[in-house]
Amino acid sequence: MTDRIAIIGAGLAGLAAGRALTETGMTPVIFEKSRGLGGRLATRRTDIGPIDHGAPGVPASVPGGGEVWHSAPVEMRQTGLPGMSALARAMSGGLDIRKSVEVQPLIRAENTWRLSDQQGVGLGVFDRVIVTAPPIQAATLTAADATLSAQITKADMSPLWTLLMAFVDPTGLEQEVLTLGGGLAKAIPMLAKPGQTGLERWTVHASPDWSAENLELEKDDAAARLLEAVREQVDLPGEPDYLAAHRWRYARVRTPLGMPFAASADGRLIAGGDWALGRLASDAVESGRAMAAHVIQTAG
After folding, report:
1. Sign of the CA dihedral with 267 first, then 268, 269, and 274 last
2. Domain that holds residue 23
3. What pLDDT is recorded for position 300?
4. Do residues 48 and 199 touch, judged by C-beta distance below 8 A?
5. What pTM was estimated for this model as a whole?
6. What gap in Å lies between CA 38 and CA 148, rounded to an integer?
7. Per the domain annotation, does 17 fall within a domain?
8. Is the dihedral of CA 85, 205, 167, 69 positive or negative?
9. CATH (domain of 22)
């Protein structure tokens, strides 16, 4: 197979697609706008220890060779060491990934697609492109195909604020997942996860409504407000030795597309991700593999 293939996004869908294509002898190039891999499989490094500030766990069916979290719900049954980002690193081995490259809206060039970065520097011309960005971003990237772009906008995602806390001295709290109310959803202690040791670290997820209503807060303001909300429900002694907030603009699938991916009429431009099928990390993997299968079946 000689088709030149680009994948935009190195989250779970992009990595799954890249892995499936590579296993057939194809050589896709993956462009990722951030410095890390895995999307919401994210781990913040701190002086007190790693803190997962995205997905706390993923289904066991997601590849990555992680640890089994037996007490967690099915959708969180697998975790990584030292954090969730380790699962993405395991999936990325051997793939051609170009980090810190923000691809601009694609330009059609006859039967190919021309890619460029935020400085206008050309990234190459590709026969087939897989787009795994969130729906709003994917619709912008594929705007040159109005029909495909409009189809992508049928999917929708909601935001999420997370609060990261770490303590040098023990808080006395049970190291188990807490279900919270008000503007909060749950608090997840790192020490509840298999293989985790060291000092006490927590991630608190805000509720979908609170996250949407406070989406444009400065991070320091969001951290202060979320900490206050935690104190209203949890007997938290003293001040955290590490405190930060992280905003995920596209975190939870609210309205899925209802199919594994969307494609242009000629099948050369494809878009998908968890937002195509549902809210689970395994949905992202399924979408990525389906997009790869489509490319394999149609590429020359």
Report:
1. positive
2. 5-42+84-155+256-298
3. 62
4. yes
5. 0.95
6. 25
7. yes
8. negative
9. 3.50.50.60
Question: 242 and 98: one domain?
Answer: no
Helix axes 12-22 and 281-298, enclosed angle (nearest 10):
40
The answer as to whether 64 is a domain residue is: no
Mean pLDDT in residue range 238-258: 96
Q: Tell the residue number behind the tokens 């807490």, with chain if given.
A: 178
- Are residues 210 and 171 both part of a single domain? yes
φ, ψ for residue 135 (rounded to 5)? -55, -50
Q: Which residue has the tokens 């490094």?
A: 45
With the C-alpha atoms ordered 64, 67, 70, 72, is the resulting torsion angle positive or negative? negative
* Residue-wise burial string across 48-60, b where 16 or more C-beta atoms lie within 10 A, e elsewhere: bbbbbbbbbbbbe
pLDDT given at position 156:
96
152-176 pLDDT per residue, tens: 999 999 999 999 999 999 999 999 9
Query: Could you tell me which residues come within 8 angstroms of residue 228 by beta carbon, excluding any fewer than 6 positions away?
Result: none
Residue-wise pLDDT tens digits, 265-300? 999 999 999 999 999 999 999 999 999 999 999 886
Residue 299 is predicted with a pLDDT of: 83
Q: Both 120 and 239 in a single domain?
A: no
Does the pLDDT value for residue 1 go beyond 90? Answer: no
How far is 78 from 81, CA to CA, in rounded Å?
A: 10
CB 19 within 8 A of CB 91: yes
Q: How many residues does the chain have?
A: 300
3-state secondary structure of 241: coil
> Band of the pLDDT at 2, cuts 50, 70, 90?
confident
